[in-house]
Amino acid sequence: MISLKNIFKSALLLGLTTAMVGCSDMLESDSERQNFEPSIESKTDSVFYAYGIFEAMQHLADQYVFQGEMRGDLAATTKYTDNNLRQLANFSATTANKYDSAYVYYRVINNCNYYIAKRKTDLYTGSTNVVMNEYAAIKALRAWAYLQLGRNYERVPFFTEPLTSVSQIDNNKFPELTLDQIVDQLAPDLEQYTGYQLPRYGSDYYNAGTPNWTSAAKNVVMSKCFIPVDVILGDMYLETGQYDAAAKHFVTYLTQFASSSTIYWNMSPFIAPMKAKMKGGQEVDRDLLPSAGNIAVEMKGTGGEWSTIFSGSVSDNSFEEIISYIPMAVNKQQGPTTIVPLTFGFNYYATSEERGDFGAYVEEIQITPSDALNTLSDSTEYYYYAKGGTNQHDNIQISKAGDMRLRSITTTNRKASDNSEYLWIDKYKQANIILYRTSTVMLHLAEAFNRLGMPDAAFGILKDGISSVLTFTKEANPGGYPDYITDDTRTKLTTIYPLFSSVNIEKFNTAVYAYGIHSHGAGKATGDCASAIYRTGTSPYKMPRIVGKKLDELNAKVKDNSYPAGITIGTTKQDTINAIEDILCDEYALELAFEGNRFYDLCRLARHKNGHAKSSTYDGSPYGANFGGVWLADKLKANNPVVDLKSEKNWYLPFK
Questions:
Q1: Any long-range contacts for 258-261 (C-beta under 8 Å, 24+ apart)?
Q2: Where are the domains of the chain?
Q3: N or C, which end of the chain is more exposed by having fewer CB within 10 Å?
Q4: Contact present, 116 and 160 (Cβ < 8 Å)
Q5: How far apart are CA 228 and CA 233, in angstroms?
Q6: Is the dihedral of CA 17, 210, 50, 427 positive or negative?
Q7: Who's near 559: CB < 8 A, 6+ residues apart?
Q8: Concatenated DSSP letters for 470-507?
């Protein structure tokens, strides 16, 4: 039996009080509202209880990142790495580990439970219910916290009543649920809120912002502290192998929730006329900006770059890419702070007197990109327009320049005194902990599509984005169409998963913005479009070729005994689906590295490769019942784990 008393007594004494006092330690306000205890039954004052939940989220932010990244294959330790992080990385963490705490998640849950139990839901302004968007969003945050518990611990106590007395804890009979059971408990209730917009708070609360919020945009930024219901439902269903339900909720988010600017920004990341020189001095014209590495760039126009997502600037269009995040305090007087930037080598809280030879960058870097991530990034093909073509659509070639995303979120320098080299990761320079981006949703949708027997749709999201070019047919566009998309998939994308239905297609109906996720760092991976004609033959990033390369990699794993003897990897549809899943796994690494997702992505893919799915059109285990465990252990072998990761029971932390 899991011991609850210490956890929940702490949650009772510390967690719930966050909401009940109006969370003044997180949000300093000049408003007179904070001079009295806010009423959860009013139309407006419940915002202060939401702030309490936001503060509880701040308390778990560091642990979320470290649990997700240190146990993955993308982060490496150094001689400066804190032992708590090192223990996470090699799977030796015990209940004494600083970053193994179920309490931080239960703190969020208990605050949410209190709000849900006490909030009046029949408050209206005219005919408009002014409560339900916030009420649904709080339930979504509770579901997210439970999802993290289910990912990290094999079984966890589950309760939906607010714990406000010691007797509730001492006399509890809370069930201990697995991840699957948690989803079974929470998803049916959340379904009634599908399609709900996130709450937005008006100008009355502009003075109640947190440190990283600008006064001009607090209304927008505050809403991003919530998680859309359809995003969390999609993730819960994807985690448990309910691919059809997952895909439908991701589609609902993209068609009903995401603004056109969000979608189009994602599909057309950084269009600007550029010139660049590749390795060896070859001059090329291209439309994506790398910020470092083997390409020297001369900008000839205005535009952004992929790394601006993490700049913290609300005024930048790239901020639209962020769906949900946890903004941390700028100092301890303002609220909970974070050590995540410091572990990656940037002292966000350094005063002018504390800055050293490299400014706010420090020499004691604790987390650095792993060899696996460096190898993946450097070996990724870069596609570019070769100079001399009659137009930019001609003569797209391959360079060994690598993917630009890792390079664009790192800063390097050399110490003159001893010629030491330093590399710092910049994703956390603004102390924002990102939970979801539009790219995350699109990649998770691709994963669901793949497992639904539509590997072509999954590849389409990588290559051409969610764009109506995926619906082009030979009959409608004889001059050019994406020939890797089957007729069956086109039909499903207009009916079962109606991204391109007559109602929704205008949101994606532009050839100009046909850019896939892989183009964020690999250049011209997309098929070119001009005048609604898809140029099939332009980019070498084509499904048969890329899948073939991945199948060769997987077969090499069989030959070198990384995978069990006797596995046959051929060219069947099941083989293709497994290969696409590994291609998506690589894309997760390139796009989402260090954002707290990696270990959970690996575990989810491993479970599905083991055949763990509640409903699927695809037999998830064509290579044996524990192929996923073998696959995961191979991915993480460089961590030198002290446990056998082929066994799923060793994927979990000790419950504390």
A1: 258/438, 258/441, 259/320, 260/507, 261/317, 261/320
A2: 5-228, 274-433, 463-541
A3: N
A4: yes
A5: 9
A6: negative
A7: none
A8: GG--TTT-TT---TTS-HHHHHHTTTTS-TTSTTTGGG
**Average per-residue pLDDT for the chain:** 82
Show the beta-strand stretches assigned E in 24-83: 75-77
pLDDT digits 0-9 by tens, 90-140: 999 999 999 999 999 999 999 999 999 988 777 657 767 668 899 999 999
Residue 12, amino acid: L
- Give the residue from 99, 98, 638, 78 showing the smallest Cα distance to 367: 78
Angstrom distance (rounded) from CA 456 to CA 460 = 6
The C-alpha atoms of residue 199 and residue 43 are separated, in whole angstroms, by 13
For residue 177, give the 3-state DSSP assignment.
strand
Q: Which two tokens stand for residue 201?
A: 């708070």
Measured distance CA(564)–CA(262) in Å, rounded: 44
323 φ, ψ to 5°?
-95, -50
Tens digits of residue pLDDT in 417-442? 888 999 999 999 999 999 999 999 99
If you count them, how many residues does the chain have? 656
Q: Report pLDDT for 210.
A: 43
Strands 128-129 and 322-327: unpaired
> Which backbone phi and psi does 231 adopt, to 5 degrees?
-70, -45
User: Can you tell me the mean pLDDT for 371-391?
Assistant: 79
**pLDDT at residue 236, rounded to an integer:** 98
115-154 residues labelled b (16+ CB within 10 A) or e (exposed): bbeebeeebeeeeeeebbbbbbbbbbbbbbbbbbbbbbbb
∠ CA 576-582-587 to the nearest 5 degrees?
125
> What is the C-alpha to C-alpha distance for residues 543 and 550, in angstroms, rounded to an integer?
11
Q: How far apart are CA 112 and CA 116, in angstroms?
A: 6
138, 53 Cβ separation under 8 angstroms: yes
Q: 319-345 in b/e burial notation, b at 16+ Cβ within 10 A? A: bbbbbbbbbbbbeeebbbbbbbbbbbb
Residue 598 has pLDDT above 70, yes or no: yes
Going across the sheet that includes 382-386, the strands are 296-299, 274-277, 283-286, 382-386, 396-399
pLDDT band at 41 (very low <50, low <70, confident <90, very high): low
CATH tag for 5-228 (out of 3.90.1150, 2.60.40, 1.25.40, 3.30.70): 1.25.40
